[in-house]
Amino acid sequence: MPDQENSVRRLAAIMFTDMVNYSKLMQQDEAGTLKLLEDQQGIVNTILKDHDGRQIKTIGDAFFSQFDSVLVALNCGIKIQETLVEFNATRKVNQKINIRIGIHLGDVEIKDDDAYGDGVNIASRIEPFADAGGICITEDVYRQVMNKTDLNFRPLGKKELKNISYSPEVYKVILPWEDRRHSSDRAYPAEKERRGKKSKPEEKLSPTPAPSTSEKKNWMAYVFGGLLILVFGFILVNYFGFGGGPDSRGARSIAVLPFESMTDQAEGDYFTDGITEDIISALAEIEDLRVIARTSILQYKGTKKSVIEIAKELDVNTILEGSVRRIEGNVRVVAQLIDIKTDDHLWANTYDRKLDDIFEVQSDIAMNIANALEAELSPELTAELASSATQNTRAYENYLKGKEQYSKYTEEGHREAIKYHNQALELDPNYALAYAELGNAYAQMYNITKEV
């Protein structure tokens, strides 16, 4: 907690940026990802300087920045995403930088070039609700900018945030290059339609001349064409499942809810949460399958909401839920895939295995889900799903314990994280994910202690 005598409170706009799939990219290409991180820092720092923003904290691939103006903070976020769109345009998939941005306006405490308080925490908590390459803002930000910008916004509803006592309304920023109603579009009206808008006084209605025979024929053709479109649309909605409801775009989509820990020991959560995250990472490899990020589903841990409610909030058409029970050297994993539209089980299975077989269980779950959703798997992807970052169960457990300690965001937690990740690397020196998380823990320790 900052020393009250050497700190000052102020209302500030806080922007949080985070690289998408950072850990996964580190696992695939550590050197290449570190270069991307360097490029990201250069781009963000340059734009921050141009908008009088002040970087107050760096956590691995994430940035906290402070602004005196909430509108300037929003414009800075838009410029960052616009610059990255241009940066990514000519680069290969594994060389692109995709980030999410969250912006909140709140009362924060400033001390020693750092910021503390809910204002900082909320910005980081809403960031996962943004799309890759997108921006989310709170209602406090929305009220300040809604009449000062031509941007459009889409409400995402109230969101429960970890360790935050209230649920803020969150909005998605419709970026200019995403908005079909932008003025560069020929279909964009010169003036927005207003209910009850009156005609200008000088405008008079003139008598409408009787239609000619050719005009009648054209009119009948338009009516017949319109009827065909309506019939075709009815068939699509009712017989092919297009239209409203969860994931109205018709694409395959899935949310993996946090698996329930059935283990008696209090420490069972880290193992169960790790299995959930690994399944999400494996499914994210499947082409044409939209997978909700882990940070977006954490809010549903222990929730009483039905899968129908959750699917509607996340806009998905399938849900995977399950449980994990661990007894000594054995583990039981129960998983079931639910089709939201029919409320039927597309697939379900119970695995009773030795703990050393947990990697095989995770791979099998991902493969079965892919088959249930009729996803096409290339031989390369099949081999990748069957592989694991490590085959050492003890190294894997230390890695999961380290991640659990890191998520406490305390000096003691980061020291513990460093200890566990080092233990994982002693057991498996080639464990790339452990190296990535070890780097994050050391970066966070430096931010706290300023010691090298």
TrEMBL record:
Designated name of the protein: Guanylate cyclase domain-containing protein
Q: Which CDD domains match?
A: CHD (cd07302)
Keywords in alphabetical order, please: Membrane, Transmembrane, Transmembrane helix
What residue spans carry the region label Disordered? Answer: 185-214
Species this chain originates from: marine metagenome
**Does the keyword field hold Transmembrane?**
yes
Task: Please name the PROSITE patterns in this protein's record.
Answer: GUANYLATE_CYCLASE_2
For this protein, the parts annotated as crossing the membrane are 219-242
Record field: compositional bias (Basic and acidic residues) = 185-205
Record-annotated Guanylate cyclase domain positions:
13-127
Q: Which GO terms describe its biological process?
A: cAMP biosynthetic process; intracellular signal transduction
Q: Does the keyword Membrane apply?
A: yes
